[in-house]
Design brief:
The chain has one domain (3-77). The chain contains 2 helices and no strands. The protein is elongated and about 75 Å long. The protein has 106 residues and is mostly helical. The chain is 75% helix and 0% strand.
Length: 106
């Protein structure tokens, strides 16, 4: 396997692993908040009502769901959009002959 292909594969695997860990952490947080939604933690019982605690838990879960979409977009879709833009830019420079404007020796 050529070095460039190995590097691309390594990058893709690192990206996939990062995406998987982030998605797992957010879903774990959502499960924990949902499991403890019915009772205010004992240190805060005097200061926070059950209704306020449940409202905060609902907000946290809703925000986490939106975060799942954001993580999926940023981890799975956005890199390919950037890659395609770079490919189109290099193709445009090649077609326009702009490479000829660069000095031969640097």
């Amino acid at each position: 396997m050529p070095a460039a292909d190995a590097l691309s594969l390594l990058f893709a695997l690192a990206l996939a692993a990062s995406l998987a860990v982030k998605l797992w952490l957010v879903s774990r947080q959502m499960r924990h908040v949902a499991a403890h939604r019915a009772q205010v933690p004992s240190p805060f019982e005097a200061a926070v009502s059950l209704a306020a605690h449940q409202k905060a838990a609902d907000y946290t879960i809703a925000k986490a769901r939106l975060s799942l979409l954001s993580i999926a977009w940023n981890g799975a879709v956005a890199p390919f959009i950037v890659w395609d833009i770079l490919k189109m830019a290099f193709a445009a420079v090649s077609v326009a002959g702009a490479w000829a404007l660069l000095p031969k020796k640097l």
